[in-house]
Specification:
- By secondary structure, the protein is an all-alpha fold.
- The protein has one domain: DksA, coiled-coil domain (Four Helix Bundle (Hemerythrin (Met), subunit A), Up-down Bundle).
- Helices cover 51% and strands 0% of the residues.
- It is elongated, with a radius of gyration of 19 Å.
């Protein structure tokens, strides 16, 4: 039985690197959400501190802004 690892091509390495970057980004978002939950700020708008509408949170659990402020493009993180 051959126990050698298969050779990876440059294309394979690029795909793996892109996956690592995507996973690191996802982890950072999850850590931010966990921090917001722990500090009781999850679901509150970062611009005005009002409650974020349930429709917004249902569509995007990572939302940081209420409807008024997200319509101004502030939900981009």
């Amino acid at each position: 039985m051959d126990n050698e690892a298969p050779e990876l091509t440059a294309s394979d390495l690029e795909r793996l690197a892109a996956k690592v970057v995507a996973l690191e980004s996802q982890l950072a978002k999850l850590q931010t959400l966990a921090s917001r939950i722990e500090s009781n700020s999850y679901g509150k708008c970062e611009a005005c501190s009002t409650e974020i509408e349930m429709e917004i949170l249902a569509a995007d659990p990572e939302a940081l802004f209420c409807g008024q402020h997200s319509s101004q493009g502030q939900n981009l993180i």
